[in-house]
Batch of 2 targets.
Target 1
Amino acid sequence: MSALGTVLLATMVLLGALTQRATGLGFALVAAPFLVLLTGPAVGVSLSNVLSASLCALVLVRTGRRTLWREVAVLAVPALLAVPLGVYVVRTLPEGPLLVAVGLMSVAAVAVVAVGRNRALLTGRGSAVVAGALAGFMNVTAGVGGPMVTAYAVSRRWPLPVFIPTAQATLLVLNVASLAGKGLPPLAATVWVVSGVALVTGLAAGELLSRRLGAARGLQLVIVVALAGGVATLVRGLVAL
């Protein structure tokens, strides 16, 4: 990876970790499209899964006392059932179509967050099944399972102090399951070190800013950056086609 690519990777991982600590969501939306651009769709999504799982575990340690574990289980079961389908798609699609799929799902995920942050998109008895299954599939294929969890949380009216740990626990399960199906990505040690340092730095910065950065402003930042990454990935896929 070039020096510029390494700097971009570190920046996106740091920004993603910061926003996720402050708002409960953001790492995959911000970082995953750029990781895909830098390392390819299969490796980039798997790297996002590794880093997201690590971040979720670290945030959960700090915020886990208010986790709704029953809701985690309700979402995780359909998500785990959808993981094998996502693994099959990743292993069978060529790079061009896979980039297009990742880009489209990333943009769709941003739209779900932008449109659904103030309204209930998933209502009724089957909402947890729909949200969980879509989160599991999108997490494996595009690294962006969080928006569907967010849509479900808004519909259930979870307050932010409850949403943050409950979302982390759910996404931790999804990312571990995704990696179990695909395996760890083959990357140079430098990439792992840079990613790890950026993740911890972003988490520490997010801890400090969580008291000052409003959830609404943080979410606006996530939407803007994530949309740019999703569109760039989509364009790269279209060019590859």
Note: Residues 215-240 form the longest helix (26 residues).
Target 2
Amino acid sequence: MAARRFSSLEICSGAGAQALGLERAGFDPVMLIDSKDVACKTVIRNRPHWDVRCLDVVDFDPAEHPETYDVDLLSGGLPRVKAAAAVGPTEDDPERNLLRAAIWLLTSVRPKALLLENVPALVEKDEYAEDRSWITKELAHAGYTAYWKVLNASEFGVPQNRKSGFLIALAEPFHAAFSWPEPSDRPAPTVGETLGASMAAHGWPGAERWAKQADRIGPALVGGSDHRGGGDLGPTGSKRAWAALGVDGNSLANELPNADFPADAVPKLTVRQAAMIQCIPEDWIIEGRKTAAYRQIGHAMPPPLAEAVGRAVASALSGRLGSPHVPVQDH
């Protein structure tokens, strides 16, 4: 018998990597929403049958889209949220507005489950305690039980030390069957194992030596802001970590190293190689020029992590009990 499929509404869908992982976990979106035109084009290019709306979530009115009511899952990978203490009382904070809009949207569409991904600090740090408390209380008032946890993508087969903060919330009676996914029992591949074949593809004589040296997982790819310069692999600390793996993180390459590239030179990553580090499949085409494409990749949730969390939610919605756990209501 075929596995049960679930419906979802995804906000801040970006390049669709999270939706791809959730699709593998059994969720079919009735709609995806993102404010960036190039990201919407990426999702449409790869899943033309999905209903993609390019607009700000704050402006979305579910009453105009009744198909979004009562979906099984409301999901989203929200932009980095600043702590309440860091935002002035009169300062307009778009990221915080999105977080609150997501909670208010839940109270309108009434999904069975909520899955939001953000920075680990939102889950762990004291300066976000006010936010966690507000969110947990709002969800409880709406009839949902909230679970908070930080997961590292490297524990689910992704060659990156990439931590994400998750908020899962489930309505009665599904919350009783929820448990967080267990890490893989196999280590994630190294950067060399992940990119070695691509580094050698155009005849670079240093590819084999390079792959042996790149013998660890990489640091988290950083997508950066639309308000800063061209595509690179992140702040100084990230670039230093990439340099230790034999990667020049100051910018991105247009092409793979070829036979004329010196054997002892330090290569840069192409956009496609960055996607490989994120475990975005080769047939998932990223729209836009180099910097715009890389930002979509850097901001994405790796599909294997999205799939693992999605399967945990799907199990709860199916009423399949997982391993014992203790929900973290607040810190």
Note: The two ends are 43 Å apart (CA to CA).
